[in-house]
Specification:
Strand order of the largest sheet: 6-7-8-3-9-10
CATH class: Alpha Beta
Order of helices and strands: EEEHEEHEHHHHEHEHEEHH
Bound molecules: adenosine-5'-diphosphate, magnesium ion
Radius of gyration: 17 Å
Distance between the termini: 34 Å
Strand content: 25-35%
CATH topology: Rossmann fold
Shape: globular
CATH architecture: 3-Layer(aba) Sandwich
Number of domains: 1
Number of helices: 10
CATH superfamily: P-loop containing nucleotide triphosphate hydrolases
Length: about 230
């Protein structure tokens, strides 16, 4: 469904990602692991078009989207749930969700999708008219995921959804990931949390200082000594 070939990307002419190749098959949950500053967010931002690649290709559903704008990618269903959630704090939960579904493809489907999202996250239903800034961190993560789903995501890319959450909320959020997987959604799960991600993804890539150090089935990645090395920066 999504294929990256030889991607080089960075900032102000300085590459951060060097020769990244990866793929997401339809219906898969793929983990993208790596220590802080490994380049995970830069990669996700390259996939969503926020960072412009210096070299390489990004193919989505058979179409070359390397030069597509972020908005064009949203219309195709490439949806990012950003690191740090970035909900709009002054707007209500309902307004945040509606905004998630503002693109042409999603707008007519908003009422039905809103029902689905609220069934998935009953806590959001109870807080629909509350300003998003008054929600707890875990609830804001629910809202950020709900907002992504409102866009009728075909690939949902979650950037560190467990960051800063209490263990209870982390379990809950990963339970949601499992449920979305069962529903057939294709997901890229970007995480520092190694063991948790290995339990919830079918395949993983481990990013180490801008290149892929290890890749394979979760079980293989788990037992590869290079995985832990990548984390320790050895
Ligand atoms: N907007 C930016 N401008 C310049 N350098 C950046 C920017 N964003 C990230 N970087 C640098 O790119 C590297 C990778 O960062 P990032 O992709 O955020 O890693 P991760 O998400 O794995 O923590 C870091 O060295 C970081 O300092
Ligand atoms: Mg990051």
């Amino acid at each position: 469904m999504l294929e990256v070939e030889g991607l080089v990307a960075g900032y102000a002419g300085t590459p951060i990602l060097r020769d990244i190749s990866l793929r997401l098959d339809r219906g898969e949950t793929v983990g993208l692991l790596g220590a802080n500053n490994a380049g995970k967010t830069t990669l996700i931002n390259s996939l969503s078009g926020i960072v412009t690649p210096m070299a390489g290709r990004i193919i989505f559903d058979g179409r070359d989207v390397t030069r597509a704008t972020p908005m064009q990618r949203v219309e195709m269903g490439i949806i990012q749930v950003p690191e740090g959630r970035l909900v709009f704090p002054e707007m209500s939960v309902r307004e945040n969700l509606l905004l998630g579904g503002f693109c042409d493809r999603a707008r007519p489907l908003r009422p039905r999708q809103m029902e689905k999202v609220l069934a998935l996250f009953p806590r959001l239903k109870e807080r629909l008219s509350q300003p998003a800034g008054t929600l707890s961190g875990g609830e804001q993560q629910m809202l950020a995921i709900g907002r992504g789903l409102m866009a009728e995501a075909r690939v949902l890319m979650l950037d560190e959804p467990s960051l800063g959450l209490s263990p209870l909320f982390v379990q809950y959020i990963f339970g949601i990931v499992d449920q979305l997987h069962k529903d057939g959604l294709t997901m890229l799960l970007v995480e520092q949390n190694l063991n948790l991600t290995l339990r919830h993804a079918q395949r993983c890539y481990v990013l180490e200082r801008g290149h892929i150090a290890v890749e394979g089935a979760a079980e293989v990645v788990k037992n590869d000594p290079r995985t832990r090395q990548a984390y320790l920066g050895l």
